[in-house]
């Protein structure tokens, strides 16, 4: 009986609890919270079983997570855009570059004087693709799909406005250069850039003598210095400023070049560097002729090399090829590393008439002792890279080197037999 009474009491209590839930559904008790948690757990258990049976469709938040997951994280300290540029990626959208006012975000520009010509070097920044070169609203040159813009040297007039553009382009076969000059409101191909440069020279009075110091890295009061990547090679360029005449080239306290007479001077020094390899080109002007001196840095010292060695090393730098130590200059010819005179362009030389006296009537000579005389030729005659005075006889000796005018061809005197006394 007692057992039956207890069971009856329990049943009554459960019925009262059920009625309480029905009557006070708006309120919550501790039991309600426990029930809710139990329902949630039960619901979770059901969901788990459903996941095991049939995979659910992803919800929207999970789709967003899936979209964001593949995004790469930029390298430490570098914006993602810079990483793309450093990897050699090119901006897919080519731009029009205004040479009169270059975009500083898209290009670098450097102002200097080449002799008495005001020049601006303009180089696109890494990853920037250029499709057209402009001068304000004037079209200078439109690149083809097979050309890439490397850099431009812009020659300015007295008002600082572009008048001549020397453009270097990359092509499938290497590099090409084009010259365009302003004619009114149009730009046209220039067939005589030297004449155009001469017309843009800045008049100057007396010049102060100075020296160019290769050990300096920043510009001074008398020298413009800057560094830029050209054709894949880091290049440091040094130019005397307007009103100065560079008569010496120094590397700290060591002299590399000095003018031999009042008519020649240094126009520029270009140092090309790739890794631990450095080569140097010194450009010298002597009246209307240009001469180049070539050097390579070996054991922290500059040593003379031939033009062929210089060009080979520069080409290897562009290709990233390891460069061997420089060879000692050849001793076969006198002054083998003296500047090699070459012009901007190869002119015809019909008016050059420097001839050996053996071809002149009445000249007194010995057959074994040849001479040469310059008959007031237009571009002069050079003996061992020194310009000879006109209307004077010069005795020639074995292994002497002759050049005529602006021609780059050299003639070396060799005796076939023994020299007579």
List keywords for this structure.
Tumour Suppressor Smad4, 7-stranded antiparallel sheet, 421 residues, alpha+beta
Write a structural description.
- By secondary structure, this protein is an alpha+beta fold.
- It folds into three domains: 84-203, no CATH class; 204-345, no CATH class; 357-412, Tumour Suppressor Smad4, CATH 2.60.200.
- The protein is 19% helix and 36% strand.
- The chain has six helices and 25 strands.
- The protein has helices at 2-23, 30-53, 60-68, 80-86, 193-199, 307-319; strands at 95-98, 107-114, 117-124, 130-135, 138-142, 148-156, 162-171, 174-183, 186-189, 208-213, 223-230, 233-240, 244-251, 254-258, 264-274, 277-286, 289-298, 301-304, 340-341, 371-373, 381-383, 386-387, 393-395, 401-404, 411-412.
- The strands form six sheets. Strands 11, 12, 15, 16, 17, 18 and 19 form a seven-stranded antiparallel β-sheet that branches. Strands 2-3-6-7-8-9 form a six-stranded antiparallel β-sheet, covered by helices on one side. A four-stranded antiparallel β-sheet has the order 22-21-24-25, with no helix packed on it.
- Strand 15 (264-274) and strand 16 (277-286) form a beta hairpin.
- The radius of gyration is 40 Å and the shape is globular.
- The N and C termini lie far apart (160 Å).
- Mean pLDDT is 74; it is low at 6-89 and 328-367.
């Amino acid at each position: 009986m007692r057992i039956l009474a207890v069971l009856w009491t329990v049943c009554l209590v459960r019925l009262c609890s059920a009625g309480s839930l029905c009557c006070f559904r708006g309120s919550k008790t501790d039991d309600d919270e426990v029930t809710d948690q139990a329902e949630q757990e039960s619901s979770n258990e059901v969901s788990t079983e459903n996941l095991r049976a049939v995979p659910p469709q992803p919800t929207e938040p999970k789709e967003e997570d899936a979209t964001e997951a593949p995004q790469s994280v930029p390298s430490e300290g570098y914006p993602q855009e810079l990483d793309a540029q450093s990897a050699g990626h090119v901006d897919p959208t080519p731009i029009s570059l205004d040479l009169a006012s270059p975009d500083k975000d898209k290009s670098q520009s450097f102002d200097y004087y080449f002799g008495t010509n005001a020049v601006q070097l303009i180089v696109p920044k890494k990853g920037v693709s250029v499709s057209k070169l402009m001068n304000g609203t004037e079209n200078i040159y439109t690149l083809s799909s097979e050309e890439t813009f490397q850099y431009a040297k812009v020659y300015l007039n007295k008002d600082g406005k572009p008048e001549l553009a020397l453009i270097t382009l990359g092509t499938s076969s290497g590099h090409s250069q084009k010259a365009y000059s302003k004619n009114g409101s149009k730009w046209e191909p220039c067939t005589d850039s030297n004449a155009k440069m001469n017309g843009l020279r800045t008049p100057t009075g007396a010049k102060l003598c100075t020296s160019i110091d290769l050990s300096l890295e920043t510009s001074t009061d008398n020298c413009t210095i800057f560094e830029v990547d050209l054709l894949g090679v880091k290049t440091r360029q040094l130019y005397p400023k307007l009103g100065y005449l560079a008569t010496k080239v120094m590397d700290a306290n060591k002299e590399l070049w000095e003018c031999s007479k009042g008519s020649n001077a240094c126009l520029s020094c270009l140092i090309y560097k790739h890794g631990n390899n450095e080569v140097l080109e010194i450009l010298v002007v002597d009246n209307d002729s240009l001469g180049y001196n070539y050097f390579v840095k070996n054991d922290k010292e500059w040593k003379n090399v031939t033009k062929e060695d210089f060009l080979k090393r520069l080409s290897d730098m562009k290709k990233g090829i390891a460069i061997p130590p420089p060879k000692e200059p050849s001793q076969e010819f006198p002054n083998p590393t003296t500047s090699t005179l070459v012009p901007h362009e190869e002119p015809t030389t019909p008016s050059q008439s420097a001839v050996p006296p053996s071809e002149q009537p009445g000249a007194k000579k010995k057959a074994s002792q040849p001479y040469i005389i310059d008959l007031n030729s237009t571009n002069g005659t050079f003996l061992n890279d020194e310009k000879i005075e006109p209307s004077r006889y010069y005795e020639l000796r074995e292994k002497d080197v002759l050049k005529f005018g602006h021609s780059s061809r050299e003639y070396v005197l060799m005796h076939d037999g023994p020299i007579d006394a």
